[in-house]
Amino acid sequence: MWALCSLLRSAAGRTMSQGRTISQASARRQRPPKDPLRHLRTREKRGPLGSSGGANTVYLQVVAVGSRDAGAALYVFSEFNRYLFNCGEGVQRLMQEHKLKVARLDNIFLTRMHWSNVGGLSGMILTLKETGLPKCVLSGPPQLEKYLEAIKIFSGPLKGIELAVRPHSAPEYKDETMTVYQIPIHSVSQRRGVRDPSLVIAFICKLHLKRGSFLVLKAKELGLPVGTAAIAPIIAAVKEGKSITHEGREILAEELCTPPDPGAAFVVVECPDEGFIQPICENATFQRYQGKADAPVALVVHMAPESVLADSRYQQWMERFGPDTQHLVLNENCASVHNLRSYKIQTQLNLIHPDIFPLLTSFPHKKEGPTLSVPVVQGECLLKYQLRPRREWQRDAIITCNPQEFIDEALQLPNFQESVQECRRSAQDGPAPAEKRSQYPEIVFLGTGSAIPMKIRNVSATLVNISSDTSLLLDCGEGTFGQLYRHYGDQVDRVLGSLAAVFVSHLHADHHTGLLNILLQRERALASLGKPFHPLLVVAPTQLKAWLQQYHNQCQEVLHHVSMIPAKYLQVGAEISSPAVERLISSLLGTCDLEEFQTCLVRHCRHAFGCALVHTSGWKVVYSGDTMPCEALVRMGKDATLLIHEATLEDGLEEEAVEKTHSTTSQAIRVGMRMNAEFIMLNHFSQRYAKVPLFSPDFNEKVGIAFDHMKVSFGDFPTVPKLIPPLKALFAGDIEEMEERREKRELRQVRAALLSRALTDDLEDGEPQQKRAHTEEPQSKKVRAQ
């Protein structure tokens, strides 16, 4: 008991030494936690649909501009509802970074069943489920229901959230903000079938009538009973356009109210290629909104390539909306920085070591598109078009990427410049290696976070460049292609063209949902390079094939992209009964110049694997995937040149690590030491450590921390540990906050232990009396019986 009290005093003393007392910390926590679903309860209080009188504020905002790394996505806001048009890979990450609240989404509209439109939908649905959102309505192509069934192969049952799918043939959808009409459009040049690539869905969205505002001052001038209960029916009447009579005088509604807003419309249309132009131009529903339409179209959003915009038929169709209609274009010709925080942190890391932390590619505006006679605006990330209260473009939120600002901010941090200079001196003064190591293999960390993509760390993906013309991917989470594109820029096709294989460790979404985009972009890259197309070797649990098969059968043809090697066949002692698989394994080893590609089951979910690559030149790279400390991995990785091991959680969270089947920092390091690995790179950090994880006492000259876009070769092993002091200086504020959280957690644990011990002592003190009572009671009964 005394020891626990001492520990409690010690923990409290550490907290106070940081200049913050427990009472001060408690004072800061007085604000109650936000209710993530309070908007639903507010909606229930508003009463029947349409009784609110229309939304006061409505705007559209560009989430992704249609560029190759981000696809095209649009966010629509009103005070009543939130909508998302298309959900490609990376959209959830962008919404999180730019504070577009995912938990408020009512509806997701999809213009086409193509991976560029739905690649981020599985992750978005899982996040919506975690937020507790009870229902989300999805509208789009007929394959949508089949897609939702397919993702259950890796997501499991989607219990806790109702996903209501509106087929494209359904009548209009109506809510508090607007009415949405779906318009199916079939290409004239494509076949139709179960997985119909010739079908796109356009959306016409008509805002509800907004009643005029009651003019209080005018009402007072006219002697109306403002401020009393009698004014309520008067306000209701004039807002409905009715005249009233007061003291024998008729007062017109327009005298007491501003004019009502009848509600403009906006159109979202995707035209993927020239085969859709004629059906769009001839569509009767569109024609009703062109010319002198009852509902003027304020904005048309075009998700269309430059070849479509240059077509005279499409240009004439745009002109028919009239000169007052604005046009927003989202396509690959739009150049915009989306992931600003990623650019910022990489610019600052580049100051520490420009080779290990290379700058990301900047994308200048591309060539001018065709000259159009209508008002056209190129998409930019976070560009807004406001429909209410006043129609206008709003550019105040548009992202501007100013590297010099990022550099100045870092240089002003205490001790940063000094620690960088000391790091460079230390690297120069260190012992020269016996022989200069080759540039290859080169390890490029594309995603180093866990669970969901966040603004600084994307989910799991590591590129191993075995040589200048051969590479291999270890895991492939959502947004992997986007990371590749931002890292390599215009050279991304060369990298994809040299990609020999992908290893998928297990079927959690953060490890494989980027695979389909890699496959599709690789086909495009091979065509641009003039190389013949051939399937990509994929080493994965056999369950991945079921997901690919389902998606292929119902949504989009993808199976011809893949030659599958079940990961279980690469375990030691595995019997391979299929000659076709044997040929694929031989091809894998030969193409990658590997002596061995070995897998083992690790301690995570079912069918989770780690792998070891043994090169013919002798080096060995081991990748843990997701796992708790694992003996099989230690044996497989014996004497590894490099171990890439997950370190999801900090030390002190061992119980949580067991619960989630992950490793802590020190556990990962100890695995590497037992393996006798020459070097250990820690990876797959919980997103609670967004910038940098907490450093463990076990860190030594053989351990490094992975960051997104970090590039490491074997010759960098002596340098990587020397980066830690400048990293600590760069992220000093974040480290201090994490240490404070850790101290508070330890204090709570001590208090809980103290309380538990006190309760135990009370029970022990009361136990003899209870025993005496139990022994005396039968005796007294016996006496009475006698």
Automatic annotation (TrEMBL):
One of its GO terms (molecular function) is metal ion binding. Residues 458-662 form the Metallo-beta-lactamase domain. Pfam families: Anti-Pycsar_Apyc1, Lactamase_B_4. InterPro entries: Metallo-B-lactamas, RibonucZ/Hydroxyglut_hydro, RNZ2-like, tRNase_Z_dom. Residues 15-52, 758-786 are annotated as: Disordered. Its main location: mitochondrion. SUPFAM superfamilies: Metallo-hydrolase/oxidoreductase. It is found in: Mitochondrion matrix, Mitochondrion nucleoid; Nucleus. GO terms for cellular component: mitochondrial nucleoid; nucleus. Transmembrane segments: none annotated. Residues 15-27 have a biased composition (Polar residues). It catalyses: Endonucleolytic cleavage of RNA, removing extra 3' nucleotides from tRNA precursor, generating 3' termini of tRNAs. A 3'-hydroxy group is left at the tRNA terminus and a 5'-phosphoryl group is left at the trailer molecule. GO terms for biological process: mitochondrial tRNA 3'-end processing. It is an enzyme of class 3 (hydrolase). Gene3D superfamilies: Ribonuclease Z/Hydroxyacylglutathione hydrolase-like. Residues 768-780 have a biased composition (Basic and acidic residues). The keyword Secreted does not apply. It comes from the Eukaryota. Homodimer. Interacts with PTCD1. Belongs to the RNase Z family. Zinc phosphodiesterase, which displays mitochondrial tRNA 3'-processing endonuclease activity. Involved in tRNA maturation, by removing a 3'-trailer from precursor tRNA. Associates with mitochondrial DNA complexes at the nucleoids to initiate RNA processing and ribosome assembly. This is Zinc phosphodiesterase ELAC protein 2.
